[in-house]
Amino acid sequence: MSRSYRHAPDEIGRPRPKRTENGDVFRCRHCRQEIGRDAPGTAHRNHCPLCLWSVHVDDRPGDRSAGCDGGMEPIAIWVRPLGEWSIVHRCGTCHAVRVNRVAGDDSEFALLSLAARPMAQPPFPLARLPRGR
Length: 133
Description:
By secondary structure, this protein is mainly beta. The chain has a domain at about 45-120. It has one helix spanning about 110-120; strands at about 25, 35, 55, 70-80, 85-90, 95-100. The longest helix is centred in the C-terminal third of the chain and has 13 residues, at about 110-120. The protein is globular, with a radius of gyration of 17 Å.
């Protein structure tokens, strides 16, 4: 059975973006969701707002000059000095690390999960921590 998702909500209740003649929609390579190119709070959509993955296409934001085209995994959250959150991505192909601003429509759950990852998966055994007094 063929289903049209053009105007139907996605799995988390967000309306799906409308496909236009200009190609204002792309499909995320990681989660396969259709994503609108407009990103609230930033001039360049540089990652999927649902899974936070990106593609290594820029050397500088918006220049589309990187020749790598590898998948950029979100590996951390960085909080800038004035409190703005950014996502740290690492390319799975060339291992370049880039920082991208959080967009206004990014999944809060995905952002908090990424921010909490170091506490959930510490780089040392928790048994080595001293017990409280």
